[in-house]
Amino acid sequence: MTKGIVADIERSSLHDGPGIRTVVFLKGCPLRCEWCHNPECIKKEPQTLFYSEKCIGCGKCEEGCFSGAKIICGKEMTTDEVMKMVLLDKSYYAEDGGLTISGGEPLMQGEFTLSLAKAAKEHGIHTAIETSLALYDSEVLSSFDLIMFDLKLPDDERHRKYTGIDAKIVKDNILKCSELGIPMLARTPVVIGVNADAETISEISDFLKKVPNVYKYELLPYHPLGTVKQKALGISVRKFEIPTKSLMEELNNYAFIR
Amino acid sequence: MLSYADRIASMRETKIRHTLEKRTQNGFTDLDDFGTVPLSEGYEVLPYYNSENGSFYGAAAMAENFCRVLDAHEAYVDPMEMLCGRWRDMLVNYRGDIHYMPDWMKKNEKLRNFVAGDVTAQWSKRWDEKRFPYDDLKPLQKLYNIQTGIDGDAHFACDYSIGLELGFGGFLDKIEKYRTINKGKDEFYDAEEKCVRAMIRFIDRHIAKIDELLSKEKRPEIADSLGKMLKCCKNVRTDAPKNFHEACQWVSFFNCFSRIYTRDGAGFQLDTVLLPYYENDVKNGVLDDETAKFLIANLLLIDPHYYQLSGVDAQDKDITNHLSYLVLEAADMINISCNLTVRYHKNCDQEFFKEAVKYLFKNKNGWPRFCGDAALLDGYMKNGVSKEIARERIAVGCNWMCVPGREFPMNDTVKINIAKVMEVALAELKTKKERSLARLKEIYQKHLKKAVEVTAAGINLHLDHIADVTPELIMNLMFRGSLEKGEDASRCAELYTVGVDGAGLAVVADSFAAIEERVEKQKLLSWDELFDALDNDFADERIRLILSSCAKYCSGEGCADNHAKWLTESFADAVRVQEMPYGRVLVPGWFSWARTIEYGKAVGATPNGRKAGEPISHGANPNPHFRQDGAVTAQSNGIAAVQLGYGNTAPLQIEFDPKISASEGGIEAVMSLVKGHFERGGTLININVLDSEKLLAAADNPDLYPDLVVRVTGFTAYFASLSPEFRQLVIDRFLEGM
To answer: What is the block-wise mean pLDDT of chain A (258 residues), using blocks of 10 residues?
Structure first.
């Protein structure tokens, strides 16, 4: 039985693809984006998060923490175990909703991701993946009904600076992915000081416009909620300014609409 | 020239003004708005008492006081409206019960002293304890924290088709006819006649008032409207309504009367009962849809009675019609808190269902709500009721059902606090040498049986004597067999399927789960440590957290969901095996909305980590923080699995901020949720799509909204459980996205 390291399973999601969805967050990501909102999903191994404000100071950490201060993120689960959770909500998926594999980067656990997508298909459940496309695996990606991906910056230099890898890798993967004939939803997280300008967004948009399977391009405003988790993980926290509604509206003028 | 839209805007402004004035007169209230208007200046009623304890009982006294209150009501005519008549005061205020007394009455010293008399410790003087004592039942009622239903009123529904066919004059004729047939029932018929004559006087005052306003009215369109109102009132004064306008006016008047009498708020299937009038008027070219909508909006403004829409008939055929759509549009026009319930069935018009869900998003006012025809019907038929009759059963109360004009269910008035029953069981277990969850459950069942027995005794006392205490003189007029037999509705109903609800399901299920996990399986605590912690109200916070951090009911994980199912089966069994006389049947349910704070005060610390005196859980809902993501689908599954199965409800109550707009798939998502819940056997859904004001109020005081779920990042969480820092982040993002 295929196994994987799961960070969390969220039910009733209305934001990770169409309809009502169950989102499986997998651990492990090859990118190191400074604004990452799921920093607990970067490492593949289980990790302990410590929320100091929840600690009651009982001094009995070794006997188990029950206050929610110490939380272990990352649990090994089999495909069947995950599917059991996914099937709990089958009554609500209707035609649109279903399973979304997210992360982290699901392609870091390609075999497990594939196994989950296949299992969902056997039950007639719609499948979607949220991927950075920093990696590429045609077998895994082609097992999904919808591919949601990011293009954060258009040029290698800045992409490397802010995420750790060249934009070319992602762009090549986007083009390869398009050949699979699966609907693709493109997104850019708008981060002030990184890509929140008309020129950058236009450049990304121009590239994406030429990708035939991309049916929609969305700009998502940066939000600082990941910083709380960064603090709990004991890693350095970098906060960015939150884009205003008017800035997002302005930038949306440069994002293409199909 | 004033359009309907202008007039609606004016009506809404008047409504807001009335609400503020009422707050000054009555103080803050946790009760329904009821559609009342403020008391007019100089309003005063001196009640007639026939009991030495400072209250009044029986048909003659009730009728006398109803007439005194109704006669004191000034006519209410707003030229902006097409319907007239409002209620301002109710009979219960005068029954010598300081606890129900509104502020305006307390401020009137003469009246206050007259009404309250000697204030005793007795909670309610609505029951005639001198004639019908129940001191023998009180110790166990108190032990198990039972809401007895004794002295309850109006928790049934009358059949409006009877009244619409007869009119007020027809009531008088019927009273006269049966008075001669049923000899020796003069007190009953005298009382009924007296009430109906007071109703006609009330309408006469409105006719005079409209006349007066009409003579001064300069705006032609308003003068025309007042002229129609005048004609309408003259026609329904004694005659049965003949057209849509008259039917709406007749219902409005009747609702005023039944509200004044017992605050009755049970309505009817609006889109079928009024359909013949609508269709006939449209066929004759005297009614257009805009006017029909304005009239319905006016009807809804006058009183937030419980009205149903859509559903299927006894052949499972869809009954949705054009009027169903007009009612939704009318409710949208007036956009106040409407008690509209949409009956869902897989055969129903799915376009209509979608329209109904749209308004949840558009107005964020919690209407409409949805009930599941299939599970309610199948369940109710288990009481030996035919499919035809079962199909007539509709949602006519906050979370309860009734067959109009046939059933006397006392629904929503009888509750057993099972958290208290568990507390009694735990106290007994503490004295035993052998302690186990299995033993606790056995003891719980023994006490539950006793609680049901004493509840049943209270119900029987109530049903045996309520006709002599608070006969339902107004609703009797539209109750099958009442006037025909000269009997109160409580004595002539075809169906006595009496609702008995459990309260505190999640508290007990989570407590059992905590014991199973932490005491028995993991042995993190001994029984002695558990009992000590309960006794000292969790002086050690770590112990409380050990217990409260177990997987909870509705989480879909751990054992709490199984305990909830066991509690459901044991509650249903205990209620169903209870023998009742005269064909009475007890029907189990899980709803307990209004009094969870009060019930909680009666219960000490519980093994789920709940501290002494904290509120118990709501209805069939899980405890707050039942899952980190607060998944509505998990909640839906959990609640669908604890349906009692006899036609009463275990409602799903959801308040959430979908953070997606209607056009981005929000409507389809809610439709999937509603359908999914009903497919799994759910009975009733109250959905509150969240508005920004609520979230901002919660930002100032999170404890006000312990069930508020917010989207955080990759997951959703309970707002109140977030750290202050996190909360601020959510608020900032929310404000940003507005």
So the answer is: 95 92 97 92 95 94 94 97 97 95 97 98 98 98 98 97 96 97 97 96 96 94 89 88 94 87
Sign of CA dihedral B313, B315, B318, B323: negative
Chain B neighbors of A228, CB-CB under 8 A: 723, 725-726, 729
Q: Does residue A258 fall inside a structural domain? A: no
Q: Which residues of A touch B541 (CB under 8 A)?
A: 56, 58
For residue A11, give the 3-state DSSP assignment.
Answer: strand
> Residue B120 has what pLDDT?
44
Q: Looking at the domain assignment, is residue A143 inside a domain?
A: yes
CATH number, domain containing residue A30: 3.20.20.70
Reply yes or no: is the peptide bond before residue A46 cis, omega within 30 of 0: no
Domain count, chain A: 1
In a domain, B215, yes or no: yes
B549 lies within 8 A of chain A by CB: yes
Q: How far apart are CA A25 and CA A46, in angstroms?
A: 13
Residue B362 lies in a domain: no
Cα-based torsion angle of the residue sequence B258, B162, B401, B647 in order, rounded to the nearest 10 degrees: 160
The Cα–Cα gap between B77 and B98 comes to: 32
Answer with the one of B228, B263, B298 that is the final residue of a domain. B263
Residue A257 counted as domain residue: no
Alpha helices (runs of H) in A123-234, residue ranges in sequence order: 138-141, 156-163, 167-178, 198-209, 226-233
> pTM of the predicted model, to two decimals?
0.93
Q: What is the pLDDT of residue B690?
A: 67
Please indicate whether, in this complex, the C-beta atoms of A67 and B668 are within 8 angstroms of each other. no
What is the reported pLDDT for B121?
40
Chain A interface, mutation test: which of B561, B657, B672, most A Cβ atoms within 10 Å? B672
pLDDT attached to residue B115:
66
Q: Does A239 touch chain B (CB under 8 A)?
A: no
Place of tokens 């039910």: A11
Tell me how far apart the alpha carbons of residues B473 and B321 are, in angstroms, rounded to a whole number: 34
Tell me what pLDDT residue B691 has.
65
Q: How far is CA B487 from the centre of its chain?
A: 26
Range of the domain at A121: 3-252
Assess if residue B380 is contained within a domain: no
Collapsing DSSP to helix, strand or coil, A176 comes out as: helix
Into how many domains does chain B fold? 2
DSSP H or E stretch at residue B26: helix B4-26
pLDDT at B126: 84
How distant is the alpha carbon of residue B581 from its chain centre? 27
Q: Which two tokens stand for residue A224?
A: 């600082």
Distance (Å) from the alpha carbon of A64 to chain B's nearest alpha carbon? 9
Burial of B288 (0-12, 13-18, 19+ CB in 10 A): exposed
User: Which residue positions in chain B have pLDDT lower than 50?
Assistant: 30, 119-123, 713-716, 736-738
Q: Of B214, B233, B263, which residue is a domain's last?
A: B263
* pLDDT number for residue B24: 72
Say how many C-beta atoms besides its own lie within 10 A of residue B589's C-beta: 32
What is the structure's pLDDT at B709? Answer: 64
Evaluate whether residue A82 is within a structural domain.
yes
Asked if the structure places residue B141 within a domain, the reply is: no
Of all helices (H) and strands (E), which one includes residue B392? Answer: helix B387-392
Domain extent at residue B163:
1-127+158-263
User: Which of B700-706's residues contact partners 24+ apart within 8 Å by CB, and which partners?
Assistant: B702/B727, B705/B655, B706/B624
Query: What's the mean pLDDT when you consider all of chain A?
Result: 95
Task: Determine the Cα–Cα distance for residues A27 and A31; give it in Å rounded to an integer.
Answer: 12
Measured distance CA(B671)–CA(B685) in Å, rounded: 12
pLDDT in tens, B605-620: 999 999 999 989 889 9
In this structure, are residues B596 and B503 in contact, taking their beta carbons and an 8 Å threshold? yes
